[in-house]
Amino acid sequence: AMKINQDTVLRGKKVTLVPYTAAHVPRYHEWMQSEELQRLTASEPLSLEQEYEMQRSWQDDADKCTFIVLDAGCWPGQAEETSMVGDVNLFLTNTEDPTLGEIEIMIAEPSYRGRGFGKEATLLMMAYGVRSLGITKFEAKIGQENEASICMFKKLHFKEVAVNSVFQEVTLRLDVSDQERRWLLEQTNHVEEKSYAELKQLAGVLDT
């Protein structure tokens, strides 16, 4: 799946989603030194070298689709690395059911939280999953203490289906009926899909 989006840019009002490349790793690595983000994403800190390896493996992985979330007001114009605000992932890990995607959103920059960036990035990823990856069901697993994230997914029509007290996480789910599909495409009808290579070329011209 990851190969599918390697030249895809999804441009919304607040956010622009771009493929996760080696150029994004240093900033991403910096984010993941934060204990709060490690807790919220249930991840261990990696060395910079490990983070590069991880990015490479994700790029070749068939069951992950990852975008870096950029501030649409900053890029193109500013460097991508300084425009980064988070990332959004879709995991297609259920071998029994290839139409199920587990979605994860992280707005890593504190100043961007609570401003609708996560919501738009999630909507863009969901619409992409439905249109380009054949997803008809979404799940999100969120730490119980992450109320802001749980609340956001509920606003996007997800319903709480399970609570795991061992991992202290809540599972939310959305089945994409025809009605939900229409709603999702309406919510994202402003989105432009572009070629990453072309936009990078344009950005290079703007940067100089």
From TrEMBL:
InterPro entries per UniProt: Acyl_CoA_acyltransferase, GNAT_dom, NAT9-like
Segments forming a coiled coil: none
Positions of the N-acetyltransferase domain: 15-159
A Pfam family per the record: Acetyltransf_3
Superkingdom of this protein's organism: Eukaryota
Gene3D superfamilies, per database record: 3.40.630.30
Keywords noted in UniProt: Acyltransferase, Transferase
An example molecular function term from Gene Ontology annotations: tubulin N-terminal-methionine acetyltransferase activity
Catalytic function, reaction form: N-terminal L-methionyl-[tubulin] + acetyl-CoA = N-terminal N(alpha)-acetyl-L-methionyl-[tubulin] + CoA + H(+)
Enzyme Commission numbers on file: 2.3.1.308
Function noted in UniProt: N-acetyltransferase that mediates the acetylation of the N-terminal residues of alpha- and beta-tubulin.
Entry's family note: Belongs to the acetyltransferase family. GNAT subfamily.
Name assigned to this protein: Alpha/beta-tubulin-N-acetyltransferase 9
Organism: Myiagra hebetior
